[in-house]
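Private note to self, pasted from the team thread so I don't lose it. Backbone tokens:
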């Protein structure tokens, strides 16, 4: 077992005071310190607050191959306070352990989304009936979930000896993974694909509970699951109506300082697995997806070369 194992990070870590913690951290962190990942949280007044309590068999897992020489064993950053980063991530229900979990998080609070809220109220549907899940699609191998790819510095993760921020990009084949909302055990809303951008802000050294973990994605579209009955179809339609009015996309944002009590560990089936509590906001936004850093750099270089060639032609 690695001696720094409790310093692992993906970014969905939790505290008991979810809403307060997320609001405070969002107001104080300076995103100008993030140098390689360009995606940023987008402000919204249409928000669903979710929380998955790992002690209640919800939350998410991060896991890696137990063999330290395996390509999917994870890594440690280069910074003075860098932490261990696990290779894979998925909702608790997709854990390498047989947990019996059915979702990653449950809805706790609604801000805005009046159509969705009114539909829940008029049909006596509790907020906790609405769940969130992410991971490999049914029939796909667990290792097809979001992961660090080649786990290559400068491509899949970014770290430097003079920075306390580690930046990680978790990708997957869009055809292999899914992210969705459910009512009970019934899927009602599918979300489009985006990488997960995980930022580990380790300004307070080894003080595990004092460091900030952030995870977010690019704005993604939403769609209704086919074949729903009248109740769930109306519920999905109400949600889609609010999303359309708010800009047509959603973004997931988690900004939190973890506590050791929010984590449990297991070592089975060739993996070291950590289950973590899962606080996050689902924000209705109008933003568009942005190119990943490598693609953005490529577009920039193309533009520079094109401009140079045009100048030469004019001369």
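Design output:
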């Amino acid at each position: 077992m690695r001696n720094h194992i409790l310093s692992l990070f993906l970014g969905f870590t939790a505290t008991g005071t979810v809403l307060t913690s997320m609001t405070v951290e969002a107001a104080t962190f300076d995103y100008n310190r993030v140098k390689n990942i360009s995606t940023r949280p987008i402000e919204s007044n249409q928000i669903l607050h979710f929380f998955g309590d790992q002690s209640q068999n919800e939350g998410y897992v991060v896991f890696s191959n137990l063999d330290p020489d395996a390509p999917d064993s994870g890594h440690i950053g280069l910074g003075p306070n860098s932490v261990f980063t696990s290779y894979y991530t998925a909702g608790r229900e997709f854990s390498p352990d047989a947990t019996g979990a059915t979702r990653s998080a449950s809805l706790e609070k609604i801000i805005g989304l009046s159509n969705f809220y009114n539909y829940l109220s008029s049909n006596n549907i509790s907020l906790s009936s609405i769940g969130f899940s992410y991971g490999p699609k049914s029939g796909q191998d667990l290792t097809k979930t979001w992961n660090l790819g080649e786990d290559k510095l400068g491509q899949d993760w970014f770290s430097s000896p003079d920075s306390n921020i580690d930046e990680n990009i978790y990708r997957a084949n869009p055809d292999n993974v899914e992210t969705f909302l459910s009512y009970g055990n019934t899927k009602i809303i599918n979300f489009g694909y985006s990488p997960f951008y995980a930022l580990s802000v380790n300004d307070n050294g080894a003080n595990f509970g004092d460091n900030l973990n952030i995870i977010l994605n690019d704005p993604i579209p939403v769609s209704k699951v086919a074949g729903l009955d009248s109740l769930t179809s109306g519920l999905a339609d109400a949600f889609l109506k609010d999303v359309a009015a708010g800009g047509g996309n959603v973004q997931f944002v988690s900004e939190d300082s973890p506590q050791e009590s929010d984590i449990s560990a297991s070592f089975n089936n060739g993996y070291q697995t950590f289950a973590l509590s899962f606080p996050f906001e689902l924000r209705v936004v109008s933003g568009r997806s942005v190119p990943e850093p490598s693609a953005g750099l490529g577009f920039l270089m193309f533009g520079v070369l094109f401009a140079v060639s045009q100048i030469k032609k004019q001369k």
